[in-house]
Design a protein that fits this description.
13 helices, globular, 11 strands, about 15% strand, Arginase, Chain A, alpha/beta, 2 domains
Length: about 375
């Protein structure tokens, strides 16, 4: 700092010292807060959070205690009365590189200190909607990919019929195809897809159900609208596999495009592509740069930052988001648990978007 700068700073400090203390304000603050406990919260929205987290006067529930659930939601074996069902899909039979995403749901369940208040949107999703961890998809076989895809579709059709909107943790990205089959059976949905890869490849090695092709099969089955699909963060050496995205009319935003456009312009483009129709959000953690998310099967250098992903998703508030997933978390490559942590945070971001859907009030808007 220069001498002139020091003099200015000193003068400002002296000016601050000369300001008299507002004794009336001080007494008001003392009267309100001097004897207040931690759960004496006066703002109505903040009060919702306190009611969720405090178990008694000044006693917070232990974030590291009890049974671990996705986003600390209540566990339920029943869909009755549930608005949003958090579901684990521990299946990674569709991977083409490193496996391990079957442990993703368990890893995300161990993450604490995510939510329940969203300070940007100023909402408390779990206070305003009935949100529950519904456990994992039951599989008939741990070895058979085809039957596993059938099991996922069957499970999500039941959730859809029960009026439950699903928010899922995989598992590899092949799980998104049967979920979309269940949700888009009556009307094709749009999709905000954040990933390093377009995942619109064809059949190879004898299977079309691998994690590199869920969005092609969903389009060909008529459950995903390619004109209302945007794929963001695309990069890497697999570009030659993604011609279906362009031929089908999907909007592809490569990482270089993202850097050139900036977050606000990408948000505007995504909102334009999705429009007013129902949309699904699918987030593959390899969309992030591996410096932030090393715990995944197909890492690609040069990706998004967690802050960019948060800003992007926050900018989509008000769209008709009917569900979403976070996939490809492989915790055995995640020495610091950063990948699972950012996965849980993105899960919460999608949850907030679902509760901000202007076309849906849940079960008559009744809190849990």
């Amino acid at each position: 700092m220069t001498i002139a700068g020091i003099l200015v700073w000193t003068a400002a400090a002296d000016t601050q010292k000369e300001q008299p203390v507002d004794l009336d304000k001080l007494e008001r603050l003392r009267a309100k807060y001097a004897d207040a406990k931690g759960d004496d919260v006066f703002d109505p929205e903040f009060r919702k959070v306190a009611d969720l987290l405090f178990t008694g006067p000044g006693n917070r529930s232990l974030p590291y205690g009890g049974i671990s659930t996705l986003l600390d939601a209540k566990f339920s074996e029943s869909t009755e009365g549930v608005d949003i069902g958090l579901v684990g899909v521990p299946m990674d039979l569709g991977v083409t590189n490193r496996n391990g995403a079957r442990f993703g749901p368990r890893a995300v369940r161990t993450m604490e200190r995510v939510g329940p208040y969203h300070h940007v949107h100023k909402v408390v999703p779990s206070a305003d909607f009935r949100v529950a961890d519904l456990g994992d998809v039951p599989f008939r076989s741990r070895f058979d990919l085809t039957s596993s895809v059938e099991d996922i579709e069957s499970h999500y059709k039941k959730l859809h019929a029960a009026g439950v909107r699903p928010l899922s943790v995989g598992g590899d990205h092949s799980i998104t195809y049967p979920i979309l089959k269940a949700l888009g059976a009556d009307k094709p949905v749009g999709c905000i897809h954040i990933d390093a890869h377009c995942d619109t490849g064809g059949e190879y090695d004898g299977s079309k159900f691998h994690h590199g092709g869920p969005f092609r099969t969903a389009v060909l089955d008529g459950v995903l609208d390619p004109a209302r699909t945007i794929q963001i963060g695309i990069r890497g050496n697999s570009e030659f596999l993604w011609e279906f995205s362009y031929d089908a009319g999907m909007t592809v935003v490569h990482i270089e495009d993202f850097q050139r456009m900036g977050v606000d312009e990408v948000i505007a483009k995504a909102r334009e592509v999705i429009g007013d129709g129902p949309a699904y959000v699918s987030f593959d953690v390899d969309g992030l740069d591996p410096s932030f998310a090393p715990g995944t099967g197909t890492p690609e250098v040069g990706g998004l930052t967690p802050r960019e992903v948060q800003a992007l998703l926050q900018g989509l508030a008000g769209l008709d988001v009917i569900g979403g997933d976070v996939v490809e978390i492989a915790p055995q490559y995640d020495a610091t648990t950063n990948t699972a942590h950012v996965g849980a945070q993105v899960l919460f971001e999608i949850l907030a978007l679902m509760t901000l859907n202007p076309n849906w009030q849940g079960r008559a808007g009744v809190p849990q």
